[in-house]
Every structure is written in C-alpha cells, then in structure tokens.
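To: structure desk
From: M.T.
Subject: fold request, one chain
Message: Could you run this one when you get a chance? Sequence is below, nothing fancy, just the single chain.
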Amino acid sequence: MKLLLNAALIATLGLGAAACTVVTDPSSASSAGSSGSTTFMNRQQQIAEFANVNLDRIKQDMSAGQGEYLASLATLLGVESGHQPEFFTFTQAKFTVLFPSDQTSAAEMLATLNREMQAEPRFGQRLALN
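Reply: Done. Structure tokens follow.
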C-alpha cells in the first residue's frame, strides 16, 4: 500500500513539476508561450525547489529513516527504487551532518548531501546533483 502511495505521489509530483517548470521573466511583456524569456527548470533546479518547499518534511523523514518526501527526494536524485532503503538508512545516519543546526537551509543540506553521497560508493555514481 505504501509503495502504491509513493508511486502516486511521485506521479503527482511529476505532473505538478511538469506544470510548474516554465519560468517567465515578469519584467518582460511576454507570456509563457512566447520565445526568448522562457526556460525550463533543469533537474538540479527541480531538486532544489522540491527541497526548498518541503525542507521540514524531508528533515522529519530523514530523522525517521523513511517517508514519502524522502522517497520523492530519492527519486528526484536518481536513486533507483531498489536502493532507496539504503538511501533512507544513509540519510538517517548522516542526519546530524546534513542538518547541523535548526537554521540549515535546503541549499546547505543539498550541498552536504551531494558531498556525502559522492564519498559513498553505493551512491556516488547515481547522484543527480553533479
């Protein structure tokens, strides 16, 4: 059941991300349909935005070593579903490194996670933040 909920969440996030990936320069008089000022978010930007919006929930999931937001982050990072339990354990073990203070930002957490994952042979090759 939980796997089904995770799949539904990931599908919803994918649809939501697809609907929200167009960025338009508001200072120009163009619309999202015009060329020139419209760009699409790359994978790193999607990860950063997801982490920024959901940081508290990701933090809770990492401390517990499981959860929907952590699973979604793992998917965005490119961690295969078969390796996600290892990722969950890894982030739980690295929790105090990833969140050294209550004021740790999403960008700081992601930079630390990137560094820690690159140093870990199980995840270094699969990391999407390179």
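Reply (cont.): The two ends are 33 Å apart (CA to CA). Let me know if you need anything else for the meeting.
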